[in-house]
Request: fold
Amino acid sequence: MLLQILYLQINAAISHDLSENFLMASPWVQELHLHHSTIPVTIDRMLSVMPSRPIPVKPGDSLYLSNLDDMIGARVFTPTVYFYQLDNTSSSQKPVTKILQCALADVLVPYYPLSGRLRETRNGKLEVFFGPEQGALIVEARSDIALTELGDLTAPNPAWEPLIFKFPNEEQYKVLEMPLVIAQVTLFRCGGFSLGLRLCHCICDGMGAMQFLGAWAATARTGMLVIDPEPCWDREIFRPRDPPVVKFPHLEFMRIEEGSNLTMTLWQTKPVQKCYRIKREFQNRVKALAQPYDAAGCTTFDAMAAHIWRSWVKALDVRPLDYQLRLTFSVNARHKLRNPPLKEGFYGNVVCVACTTSTVSELVHGELPETTLLVREARQNVSEEYLRSTVDYVEVDRPRQLEFGGKLTITQWTRFSIYNCADFGWGRPLYAGPIDLTPTPQVCVFLPEGEPDSGDASMIVCICLPESAAQKFTQALLLHSDF
Reply:
């Protein structure tokens, strides 16, 4: 009790300091205003890219996907875009598209599963199949505007959607019989270009995608195949136990009937994507305010995730107050595996979906340290046994659709070295990351503005809200309310 009182006194002192110096917070949190222009794009040609040398599979062969690869949340393509400004000193006169095409063909030899297709087998489970339709896809396009006309290339912008290729009349969430790598190279009038990339999440998680992207970029940059580490498939390491042993309730997969106005508020009004640059100083301030009362501390992610969740719920004015809400987020479980340890170069899905719950009233009227404790416990509960239990749960009761009831999902990209990985020979990209969150408005993304090891370490937070709730969210985010 004395410890809790001490923490309350410390937090009260910090809170008073924050109120006295509220204007100081503003330079630490900046809303980024997105440029909403239309990008004219003309598609010139489509190129099927096959592995440049023989691969260790033949037509008719298939590869096993684990239940971590085949979770319903992984049955998507992850779209990202990378912008590059070329200068006249570029040593290579070889066309951009040709360099990327040749490098991709070389990289698809060690990463040959990415040249296959997905198909369903028994019980709706997916596998990689090698049949008559194979290879990755590169689309070459052009735009008669300059990169400077796109505005600020700092934060994801839904206006960039034309830079990502989609097939005509493509169904949302379609992954079956699709190329697993789809890249659109858009050449701008100024000589710069963008690489719009869609990677199938069933083949690799975020860390795996960075590994593949890094190999492709290094191969393009050097003109010779560079793979470090050697890619490892080995999805059988995550086969379910026989019989399956589900040791946890796995609230992350629970089917919940929407009993609040949250989902209706987001999906029936057209949400807008809001992006904020959050300086390290403000992250530290939130972390200081968010320290749980048990003296065990918390991470910056714990504190920011709790703060964003509470601010989002307050802004949406969710009702009823006794309704149970969920926060989910991915946890990289690579370092938790001991029996056996994961092989170096493994690029499949090794993420668990952590989940915590809280009532609307507890989020709106409770204290930030209490919510932070929930986030920390959910993160720490992800263990090797939790991962094995997840695999077995999906085997027993394979989820058939994404569940949105009362849920916010936070995706953390701040630990990805996406800018360094994406140097194809034209330097670091001006921007590297996602584009549009509005198709799934219950997702929030934490992005790095620079590299994780840089001194600045600013974070870009992107979240979807109805326009009517945006100002209220900004006020809550800035701690300009009770916390």
User: Anything to note?
Assistant: The chain has two domains: 2-31+245-477, 42-238. Residues 1-25 have pLDDT under 50 and may be disordered.
